[in-house]
Each structure stands twice: as C-alpha cells, then as structure tokens.
Design a protein that fits this description.
Blueprint: E1 31-32, H1 33-46, H2 54-65, H3 68-78, E2 81-82, E3 89-91, E4 97-99, H4 102-105, E5 111-112
Parallel strand pairs: 1-5
Antiparallel strand pairs: 2-3, 3-4
Helix pairs in contact: 2-3
C-alpha cells in the first residue's frame, strides 16, 4: 500500500524563489549617482544583444526598479525563473539565462554625492 499524502515537492508555491533585497556591496572605487546611472543605462541598452527575449529584459528592468512586492509580481507574471533571489541570475521559461550585475540591482556602499549637487 502506498502513502496517500505523498506530494511532489517541486510543484506549488514553494518552488518559486521569493525576491529579496540584495546584499550590500562596494564598487572598486567611489562612484557618483551620475556615474552609476550611466553604467545602468549602458547595461540596459546592451543587455538584449547578449541573448534572451526583449520582453524578459524589460520585465527584469521593471522589477529591479520597483518595490519588492511589485517586483515579485512582475517576475511571476513574466514567467521569470529566479535562480538568485537578488535577481542577479534568472532564466526564462525557454531556458535562456539572464545575468544582472550588482550595480544594476542595488547601490554600492561607497556611493558619493555629485559635485554638482
């Protein structure tokens, strides 16, 4: 006789990783908000050229720029498979890999004020 309450652990809500705030990190040198924003824009402009689908890149950008609860909803609705809860490594439903650098998902601890501020 078999157990009637057996369940496959890979199905259900537990299989999806919940997004969390990234761990603090430090850039190699002090960086201004303007420099950080330029790096981010350059990444988002070039990322789709390295593979994957444009709509997934767009969803990841929206998730990174949103509050945590909204980011989770965006990722879930886009069908993004989260490998790392801080969104640095994700996959789409077809298996394409999407890697986001730390400077895209969070701010460095050594962010300095712009001189023009």
């Amino acid at each position: 006789m078999g157990c009637i309450s057996s369940r496959d652990k890979t199905t259900g809500a537990d299989s999806a990783k919940k997004i969390r705030k990234p761990k603090p990190w430090k850039h190699t040198e002090a960086i201004t908000r303007e420099q950080l924003n330029r790096m981010r824009e350059e990444f988002w402009d070039t990322a789709p050229h390295y593979g994957g689908r444009q709509e997934i890149w767009d969803a990841l950008r929206a998730a990174v720029e949103a509050e945590l609860s909204m980011a989770q909803a965006i990722v879930d609705s886009a069908g993004v498979i989260v490998q790392n809860p801080d969104l640095t490594v994700c996959y789409d439903e077809r298996g394409a890999k999407y890697e986001l650098p730390k400077y895209v998902v969070s701010e460095p601890t050594n962010l300095v004020r712009d001189n023009n501020s």
